Amino acid sequence: MSAWSLNPQLEKDTINIGDLPLSRVLVIKDANYPWLLLVPRRPDAVEIIDLNEIEQAQLTTEINRVARALKEVTGAHKLNIAALGNVVPQLHVHIIARRTTDAAWPRPVWGVVPALPHDPQEVEAFIGALRRKIWLS
Predict the structure, then answer these.
(1) Is 54 among the domain residues?
(2) What is the CATH number of the domain that holds 40?
(3) Which residues face 38 on adjacent strands?
(4) What is the pLDDT of residues 93-103, one digit of tens each?
């Protein structure tokens, strides 16, 4: 079995928050949307079905924990949760907090507006709040 590493594109596009038992938790570098990724630390995992049943259950638990925390921290009107992998094949789950006032509402977020850099202080406060809610602090 090969060693796990984060896909270089995901590494470039994200800020690491920390590791849950199965997944690395990342923030997408786009301040237009509160947008997280969960990346199971399993080599060669492309699809959820590539995880065994125990890992699938753990991933579901982690998705639920992170999604609840994101909704509480942001006051989102809606959550978008998806594992697409059309551009980056490494298994990763998007958890995006949506507001009816965001730039893409009600469409998907991809390609609607250019990525907006995070304000360093705001993103640190956001990460701190998330870490406390998902028990990473």
Answers:
(1) yes
(2) 3.30.428.10
(3) 25, 93
(4) 999 999 999 99
